[in-house]
Amino acid sequence: MIKNRIMLADSYKYSHIEQYPKKIYSMYDYAEARSGKVYDKTVFFGLQYILLEYFKKPISMVEVEQAEKFAQAHGITFYADDWKYIVNKHNGHIPVVIKAVPEGKVIPVNNVLFTIESTDPKVFWITSWMETILMKVWYPSNVATRSYYIRKMLEGYAKETSDVENVDYQFHNFGDRGSSSVESAAIGGMAHLTQFRGTDNFNSVLQTYEFYGNDFNSGVIDDDNITCKVEDPIDINTIGHSIPATEHSTTTSWGRENEMEMIMNHLEINKGKPIIAAVCDSYDYNKCVENITKPQGVFQEKINSDEYPIFVIRPDSGKPEIVINDTLDIMERNMVPYTVNSKGYKVFNKMRIIWGDGVNQDTIKIMLDILKDRKYSSDNIAFGSGGWLMQQHDRDTQGWAIKCSNIKIKDGNKLYNFDVFKDPITDTKKKSKKGRVSLFIDTKTGEYVNYVMIENEIPEGYERVLETVYENGKITKIYSIDDIRKNSGN
Predict the structure, then answer these.
(1) Secondary structure class of 479 (helix, strand, coil)
(2) At how many degrees (to 10) do helices 182-193 and 202-212 cross?
(3) Distance from CA of residue 166 to its chain's centroid?
(4) Domain that holds residue 368
(5) What is the pTM of this model?
């Protein structure tokens, strides 16, 4: 069921129509991530999901009538005639043009990421009304940005210590259960998949296929107002993967004395699979690792044959700087087989480690440094993150804002541009841009430049970055997950 889209803005927005100056012909807003206090760049992602989910279907008169009823009860002004005009005149489609950075692009902070401009003077205010729903792009962009920076860290260690240098499966999304809702789990999960292919967020795999993988011409997403489609529908095998893994309930249900029997069963039932994982801290972590790695044990005999999968040890508690060192000590003492790669770092033949407790950028670096200092390749370890990846950030992390920067005033037959901006003396960082500002790239230096357009001209030596993605109800640009990964440099 489609939610009432008219009611998806902040309450005070509905009283703004009569607050604007008379004779406004159009309104122009821009969005940016302006902070840089956490990350100096932002991966732009998620606008396509918002447009497809909320604006590919026209707004109906039923929504207008319902919104009017609830607005009266809510105590806010509601201009029902204006919304009825949108339904009748524009067939329920929002009369704006949205231009945006290609999804997946990595853009330095304080640059324009998208613009919104109204196209019907009778409802010019619709630009501002869209702020609330479009601002929600901060969340998928934040998750994609966080994953991007983790990827860059992992790529750095891989370049130094690994022959493979493929980190696609080294940072796993464990965040479904810790997300605030089913929808946020799916949205954040899609964002993570722009940078990595390993995930336990099953929900997000289907969501990615539906919004960034389908051909938009059959099945799940299909609507007349979409004017383009992904030329090559995405193979679901390329979206995201997981592996068979134990949890504490499956381990402890066998009882303390049967922990190794359970792990042996896990190994046997997955014979022939490429890789499996098991939690090892249900009781005595070091003892469990000892039993798994002892050189004359049945487990090592099986795991070192080609018939059985790579086995991933999962410590799930403790201080990583202690536990990782203890794990390596036990593996060394038990002479777990390894090879030395061309860069002089050891890679275990059939065993790995995954850390999934309290993972963040700092703890990942601690563990990677331990391995590097002990001459182990970063190939030997992977990481899983839930709360930090999906929840421990907000709109202020990157300082997201959408601001009006220009209006056009119609006086008789003449149109005048009037620049709009804020410049609070109490916080100069909140000074907003003014004019019909857009994003360009310097063709010589590759730098991004915010440039105020005059009649949509392109300044010499620059190329336009923003692409039209929505125009008066038509979704005019679609990105696939492959497009987005390429745009991020993956």
Answers:
(1) coil
(2) 70
(3) 20
(4) 142-200+237-390
(5) 0.95
Per-residue confidence (pLDDT) for residue 308, from 0 to 100: 97
Q: How far is CA 454 from CA 417, 438, 443, in A?
A: 10, 11, 20
Task: For residue 142, give the 3-state DSSP assignment.
Answer: helix
CATH (domain of 47): 3.20.140.10
CA dihedral 402, 405, 409, 413 (to 10 degrees): -110
**pLDDT digit string, tens, across residues 26-72:** 999 999 999 888 999 999 999 999 999 999 999 999 999 999 999 99
| β partners of residue 115 | 30, 99
pLDDT confidence of residue 459: 81
Report the interhelical angle of 47-55 vs 202-212 (nearest 10°): 80
Contact indicator for 481, 237 with CB cutoff of 8 Å: no
Q: Which one-letter DSSP state was computed for residue 376?
A: B
For the record, the structure tokens of 144 come out as 């994609």
The pair phi, psi for residue 162, each rounded to 5°, is -125, 150
Are 155 and 271 in a shared domain? Answer: yes
Non-local CB neighbours of 372 within 8 Å, separated by 6+ positions? 157, 160, 161, 345, 378
Query: Which of 84-93, 212-221, 305-314 has the weakest average pLDDT?
Result: 212-221
Hunting for tokens 């593996």 — which residue is that? 331
CB-hemisphere CA count at 13 Å for 253? 5
CATH number at residue 358: 3.20.20.70
